[in-house]
Design the sequence.
């Protein structure tokens, strides 16, 4: 009975949406969202795909030592129900943009076994989404090192944004305004901007037996996210311009393996899981948690 009522409510809002859009032009509105609302979930899900997590445990490093690395992380594909997050869960948004997130890192050894790291995501446009000045910083240090295991700490942050046509995608705007394929009345692709800002701390437990080809490790990270999205969508008879923001904390669990090809080169593999919750008006058929696979190539200069 409850599911039937939700479907009826969704149909009612869908039918009346074109009338609402035609009746008003929304400009300059700012709204703070609960972290578990559908729109906030979409923002935190995208931020989870960019978390500045470790791909290998902290280790002792000489002052001035330099390490370069490149990393690629998968972004899971969302189904149609999961993308229905606009207006509290009534409007579908184009969230399936790039299938992966990449970054380049440069690390420098400092005093007291501290390693400083700078990361950068190239501004490569994929399916209408383009990173915009996404830079990351991190400090890591081994806390305990023994012959068989180690414990390390990593502090990290990322600032930057992604530009994308989420509210009105180029594909949706090709259909007539207020048609069944373009209920929102888009007359062109939107210029939306999502800030990916976050910072956090990660504790890493590693296993270091010399005879092991693959060096496994596990970690737990606590991240404070404070994303916001600036919406700029051209609509039939109006223009939608507003800002939505949220903030909250997440926990991420990771497991990884490191393999040394030789003294200079290494391969890193990891998988991360971030529990996320969304209060939705209908079931999606999937879990709303974020899970990905990360691969990296390391070069010690």
Sequence:
């Amino acid at each position: 009975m409850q599911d039937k009522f939700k479907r009826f409510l969704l149909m009612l809002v869908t039918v009346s949406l074109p009338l609402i859009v035609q009746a008003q032009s929304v400009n300059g509105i700012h709204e703070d969202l609960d972290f578990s609302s559908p729109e906030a979930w979409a923002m935190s899900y995208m931020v989870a795909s960019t978390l500045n997590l470790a791909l290998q445990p902290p280790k002792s490093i000489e002052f001035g030592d330099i390490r370069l690395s490149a990393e690629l992380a998968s972004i899971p594909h969302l189904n149609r129900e999961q993308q229905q997050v606009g207006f509290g869960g009534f409007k579908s948004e184009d969230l399936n943009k790039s299938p992966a997130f990449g970054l380049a890192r440069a690390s420098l050894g400092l005093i007291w076994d501290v390693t400083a790291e700078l990361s950068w995501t190239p501004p490569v446009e994929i399916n209408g989404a383009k990173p915009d000045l996404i830079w990351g910083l991190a400090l890591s240090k081994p806390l305990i090192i023994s012959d068989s295991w180690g414990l390390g700490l990593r502090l990290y942050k990322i600032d930057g944004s992604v530009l994308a046509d989420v509210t009105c995608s180029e594909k949706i705007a090709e259909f007539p305004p207020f048609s069944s394929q373009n209920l929102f009345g888009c007359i062109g692709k939107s210029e939306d901007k999502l800030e990916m800002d976050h910072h956090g701390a990660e504790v890493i437990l590693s296993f270091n037996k010399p005879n092991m080809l693959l060096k496994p490790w596990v970690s737990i990270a606590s991240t404070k996210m404070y994303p916001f999205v600036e919406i700029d969508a051209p609509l039939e008879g109006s223009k939608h311009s507003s800002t939505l923001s949220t903030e909250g904390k997440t926990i991420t669990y990771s497991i990884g393996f490191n393999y040394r090809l030789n003294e200079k080169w290494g391969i890193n593999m990891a998988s991360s899981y971030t529990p996320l919750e969304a209060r939705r008006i209908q079931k999606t058929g999937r879990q709303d948690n974020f899970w990905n696979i990360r691969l990296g190539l390391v070069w010690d200069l």
The CA atoms of residues 154 and 234 lie 43 Å apart.
